[in-house]
Amino acid sequence: MNLGEKQKLIIVKKVDFGVYLASQPEDNEKVLLPIRQVPENAQIGDEIEIFLYRDSKDRPIATTNEPLLTLGETAVLKVLSIGEIGAFLDWGLEKDLFLPFKEMTRKVEPGDEALVTLYLDKSSRLCASMRKLYDLLRKDSPYQKGDAVTGRVYEFSGNFGTFVAVDDKYSAMIPLHEDCSHLKIGDVVEAKITNVKPDGKLDLTLREKAYLQMDADAKQVMEVIEAYQGTLPFNDKASPEVIKKEMKMSKNAFKRAVGRLYKERKIEIRENSIRKI
């Protein structure tokens, strides 16, 4: 019998308050299925599919209710309350699922939705985690390059980019060069697929195609120039790091926007600066 998993067990004993189940009739290890969940006319020897977890007294107990999350899966669960050492989530069962503070990637509040997985802690208790998602997300999405998708931000990496769960279940990432400083863990974003990798992982962008994005980028560049009182202290030859920090865009996008503004005779490009005309 495995905690956190759906499994089929056999009725080996009937009592007033339910039935006891075991993997085999002769097994000594048994678990209770409460009377209100026992199927009508159930008999000793019948096989029942149940989910195994622990009750409020930390005892293993079976349920025929359908959990919203099992071991090795991910799901978006609603936060019900906050306790002294963590939060409690609704996962469709009588006893709420515990999310320890140490397993949170952001502070949650009652009413929030959190993308989590299920794990067994050192005391063999079922708990939720927001930290163990990357390897569990699926890589068999039906999407192709150019498709519009919806995803939930679940992690930021200074080396790779912003990790997103498309449809809350498919592995995806917004590359590091794209500014995501306005996002936070748990945000749901609209994005487009720029690449489907050989292993099935998705690359995303929040930006429109270059020719559609250019107007917005040009407007943003002008706003930054004006914030510098009309003279930007660098030009399109600056490093990608400087451009990203100041402009919140990639160097290529910056160069396209500067080119647009130059052709419209709104700016003058100097050796080490850009000046508004």
Which descriptors apply to this entry?
OB fold (Dihydrolipoamide Acetyltransferase, E2P); about 280 residues; 4 domains
Describe the structure.
This protein is mainly β. The chain folds into four domains: about 5-65, OB fold (Dihydrolipoamide Acetyltransferase, E2P) (Beta Barrel), CATH 2.40.50.140; about 75-130, Beta Barrel (OB fold (Dihydrolipoamide Acetyltransferase, E2P)), CATH 2.40.50; about 140-205, OB fold (Dihydrolipoamide Acetyltransferase, E2P) (Beta Barrel); about 210-275, Winged helix-like DNA-binding domain superfamily/Winged helix DNA-binding domain (Arc Repressor Mutant, subunit A, Orthogonal Bundle). The chain contains three helices and 18 strands. The protein has helices at about 210-225, 240-245, 250-265, and strands at about 5-15, 20, 30-35, 45-55, 60-65, 75-80, 85-90, 95-100, 115-120, 125-130, 150-155, 160-165, 170-175, 190-195, 200-205, 230, 265-270, 275. The protein has a five-stranded antiparallel β-sheet with strand order 3-2-1-4-5, with no helix packed on it. A hairpin with a 2-residue loop joins strand 1 and strand 2 (about 20). Helix 1 packs across helix 3. The longest helix has 18 residues, at about 210-225. The chain is elongated and about 90 Å long. It starts with 5 loop residues before the first strand and ends with a strand. About 25% of the residues are buried. The mean pLDDT is about 90.
